[in-house]
Amino acid sequence: MRSLSLLAAALWGSAVSAMPASDSFETTLVARKPVAPAALPKSFKWTSTGPLIGPKDDERKIASIKDPTVVEIDGTYHVFASTGKAEGYNMVYLNFTDFAQADSAPFFYLDQAPLGVGYRAAPQVFYFAPQKLWYLVYQNDNAAYSTNPDISNPAGWTAPKTFYPARPEIINENIGDYYWVDMWVICDAKLCHLFSSDDNGHLYRSQTKLADFPNGMSEPVITMEDPDRYRLFEAACVYKIKGGKGKEQYLLLIEAIGTDSERYFRSWTSDKIDGKWAPLADSEENPFARANNVVFDKGVDAWTKSISHGEVVRSMTDQTLTIDVSKPIEFLYQGMDPNTPEGTEYNALPWKLALITQVKDAGPGPGPGPSCPKRRV
């Protein structure tokens, strides 16, 4: 015991003698600069996998898996998505620990839960920390939600409730002959905001107090609009960018339909969820994600020309929807065989899910390629 004490004393003495003098130590601390917050680039490049998740050959006979939402918890990916076929939509849940094995993961069709049968589509999942509940937000001809204390128990999702008693009047006034779709919730320190689209060039936003959520949602306002409805189409998602002190930054993504009829994503940033959105990579020539800035992995055929409805893979799962852009962004999206016959019924289009991963320090990609005046919606 005594020899161990002597050894410890000798080691401590060596450590003390190795420490810098007081002035030198303080100078070293002053010289250290804080780590700069991660910044979004002004242009993006991506690599893509082939299809990772598609319909099962089972009694459901669904035609597509689409509209994914995804979170990663302790190495397990939890995915919710729409299931499509000519008869209509519902939703499915699966989980896995490796995207390479995603297609072998069992499906749990959510119409088996109290969430129920009927039209439910375009899910978004997040953990609402103040209530210690998971929320699944989706469309059912209204803006709906279900809750569950355990994301890994798909049978636990409650029956639908809605944020509004009926479709808000401002949407009725602007929607024309199109559809109210793709509800998305994100919260800051005081408010929860609900975004939605109408396929007619309008992005809507409502809000309620964080303490009142999910109740008390205000009448929507138009937060962005475009006379060309194809440029501001649907599938909006908003994220908080993880960074240092100072102004917060948010990223807005919206799906558009290009002049070549293919789907792609545009992007904007703002320092407030309810603030003004400044263009980031928002054109066909410089998109957030489009066929012209996506390269397929080695040995993978260019199986889709559309980078459509999808979501950033989130490991920070709470209602702030924070993402760390110091690391390459991963985005789970829906794609489709470009040789799909033109006359295929919309609900039966064969969408599958794949993953794009950001190539860091990307320069601008190539142009959009030949234009085509006909757009397939």
Condensed summary:
With 377 residues, this protein is mainly β.
- CATH superfamily membership of the largest domain, which one? Glycosyl hydrolase domain, family 43
Helix content: under 10%
What is the architecture of the largest domain at the second tier of CATH?
5 Propeller
Which CATH class of the largest domain?
Mainly Beta
Q: Give the number of domains.
A: 2
Mean pLDDT: 89
**Series of H and E elements:** HHEEEEEEEEEHEEEEEEEEEEEEE
Pfam families: Glyco_hydro_62
Catalytic activity: Hydrolysis of terminal non-reducing alpha-L-arabinofuranoside residues in alpha-L-arabinosides
Function: Alpha-L-arabinofuranosidase involved in the hydrolysis of xylan, a major structural heterogeneous polysaccharide found in plant biomass representing the second most abundant polysaccharide in the biosphere, after cellulose.
EC number: 3.2.1.55
Can you offer a commentary on this structure?
One of its GO terms (cellular component) is extracellular region. This is Alpha-L-arabinofuranosidase. Residues 1-18 form the signal peptide. The chain contains 3 helices and 22 strands. The chain is mainly beta and 377 residues long. A hairpin with a 4-residue loop joins strand 11 (191-197) and strand 12 (202-209). The chain has a 5-stranded mixed beta sheet with strand order 18-1-22-21-19, with no helix packed on it. Strands 17-16-15-14-20 form a 5-stranded mixed beta sheet, with no helix packed on it. The protein has a 4-stranded antiparallel beta sheet with strand order 2-3-4-5, with no helix packed on it. The chain has helices at residues 2-18, 22-31, 169-174, and strands spanning 46-48, 64-73, 76-85, 88-96, 108-109, 121-128, 133-139, 143-148, 161-162, 181-187, 191-197, 202-209, 221-225, 234-241, 250-257, 263-270, 278-279, 294-296, 308-312, 322-323, 330-335, 352-358. Residues 1-35 and 363-377 have low confidence and may be disordered. It has 2 domains: 1-32, no CATH class; 41-358, Tachylectin-2, Chain A.
